[in-house]
Design brief:
The protein is of the alpha/beta class. It is built from 4 helices and 5 strands, in the order αβαββαββα.
Length: 167
């Protein structure tokens, strides 16, 4: 008696699946790089379109023309003008004077354009988080500053007050 084996359909046995350690490392590396690209892209979009960096240079001036301003405390909060002065100087603005305003009952902070260049006032307002509706123009040739900031009772809502809490 002869037994014939049919070799046309070989029987396959399933071997246990083995993960190659190199492919696992490569997959982890690809995921990490994809995450890094996502973080960098989102940072770029935020810094370019959502929250662009503060510009302390005068609008329309040659490089090196820094916005000069004075900070006036109109809210009566102790140290408010000092805090805002440090905040603005750290961002490249030239704060030439800091003093009390003529009264302490100012409700909303103001940015006053002294030279007729509202772009400079807008840059200061943006840096502090003051709304554009609170920018006024009072051109005074006796002033030697581009912008004046009058701090109001809304001072705690401005960016200098939140600087220490966000970091």
């Amino acid at each position: 008696m002869t037994i014939s084996r049919d070799t046309s359909h070989p029987v396959r046995t399933s071997a246990p699946a083995r993960n190659d350690p190199r492919s696992t490392i490569l997959n982890i590396l690809i995921a990490a790089l994809a995450l890094l690209v996502l973080v960098l892209a989102s940072s770029f979009v935020l810094r370019t379109f959502v929250r662009p960096p503060v510009q302390a240079t005068r609008a329309g001036s040659a490089p090196g023309g820094t916005i000069q301003l004075d900070v006036l405390n109109g809210c009566g909060a102790s140290g408010a003008a000092t805090s805002v002065t440090g905040f603005l100087r750290a961002r490249g603005f030239d704060v030439v004077e800091m003093r009390n305003y003529k009264r302490f009952d100012v409700l909303e902070s103001l940015v006053i354009d002294r030279t007729g260049s509202t772009a400079n006032a807008e840059r200061v307002a943006y840096a502090l988080g003051i709304e554009k509706k609170n920018i006024v123009q009072q051109i005074n040739e006796d002033y030697f500053v581009d912008v004046s900031v009058v701090l109001g009772r809304d001072y705690p809502s401005l960016k200098p007050s939140h600087e220490g809490r966000t970091r």
